[in-house]
Each structure stands twice: as structure tokens, then as C-alpha cells.
Specification:
The protein is α+β, with helices and mostly antiparallel strands. 43% of the residues lie in helices and 25% in strands.
């Protein structure tokens, strides 16, 4: 047990220590935030606006148009559908049913169906992979936007395009 005279001395010092630690942590956090903040100088200028993309002068295109600045493709898993999961569950359930006896057989059937469903879903997604093209377009005002297309986008970097129904379409010049 702590002597009452010692408790009066210790309690205020613990409270003082907590206040000091709180003040120190707030000060340290503020110092880190200020050190990480970018500094501005009178000589700094905003970045020059984009005037040309892939050899096409933005001033020469229509106000609704843009220029394809970049295009890349990647292969992604197709969205899941129930066919693979159902087929896997049926096969897994049948395989599980063939093991064990009594209540163990029921448990193995359920486990086989669940495991088969998960595996069938994963296999189904891998079997139906799709190629997605990401097209980056710089508009006349310098705004940059990216669009995804699952089919051949029929545009190339440097093409002048107009965005129709969420997809870039080439403009004949």
C-alpha cells in the first residue's frame, strides 16, 4: 500500500508528466506537418498549360475534342457468374458424399460443396479473362481523363477524339 504523503507527491507529478507528454506530442506532430509542407517562393510559377499533345496543337481542335495521349491494355478476370460456383459445388458435394458414413458423410458433403463452389468460382473467373484498354485523353482545356474500353477502342495515341457515351471516338480531320 502507498503511504498517503507519498501519494500526494506522486499523483501531481504523474498528471504533470501526462500534460508534458501531450504537449510534447502535439508540438512534435505540428513540427512534422510543417516540415513536410511544400514551401512557396515568390519565384515559383504555376506549371505551363499543355499546348501540344503527341504533335497535335490543342488550339487546332474543336472545343468538345481531345487528343489521345496514352493507351495501354491489361488482362483482367471477368466478373463472376454463378455457373462456375454451381458446377464446382455439385462436383465437390458428390466427391464429399463418397467419403465417410453417417453424420460424417453429411459433413463431408457440405464441406465438399462449399469448397467446390469456391474453387469453381475462381476457376470460372480465370477461364473468362477480358482485355481492357485504358485510353488517356487530354482535352482542349488541358484536362486529363482516362476511359476504359473492353473492346478494341479503334483509336491510337495522337488521334483527335470526341467522348461520346463515355467512350472516346476518333474525329476525322
Amino acid at each position: 500500500m502507498v503511504h498517503p504523503a507519498f501519494a500526494r507527491i506522486v499523483s501531481p507529478s504523474i498528471a504533470d508528466a501526462r500534460r508534458w507528454m501531450l504537449a510534447a506530442s502535439v508540438t512534435l506532430t505540428a513540427a512534422i506537418v510543417l516540415a513536410a509542407a511544400p514551401t512557396a517562393h515568390a519565384a515559383d510559377k504555376p506549371a505551363d498549360p499543355v499546348h501540344e499533345v503527341r504533335g497535335v496543337k490543342l488550339a487546332s481542335i474543336c472545343s468538345m475534342c481531345g487528343v489521345v495521349s496514352d493507351m495501354r491494355s491489361e488482362t483482367r478476370d471477368a466478373p463472376a457468374d454463378a455457373k462456375g460456383a454451381v458446377a464446382g459445388a455439385v462436383v465437390g458435394g458428390l466427391a464429399g458424399h463418397g467419403m465417410g458414413s453417417g453424420s460424417g458423410r453429411t459433413a463431408m458433403t457440405v464441406l465438399g460443396a462449399v469448397g467446390g463452389g469456391v474453387a469453381g468460382n475462381a476457376i470460372g473467373k480465370k477461364m473468362r479473362r477480358v482485355t481492357v484498354w485504358t485510353i488517356t485523353v487530354v482535352s482542349k482545356d488541358g484536362t486529363v481523363r482516362s476511359y476504359d474500353a473492353e473492346g478494341d477502342p479503334r483509336v491510337a495515341p495522337g488521334d483527335v477524339v470526341v467522348v461520346a457515351e463515355g467512350h472516346p471516338a476518333r474525329v476525322e480531320r
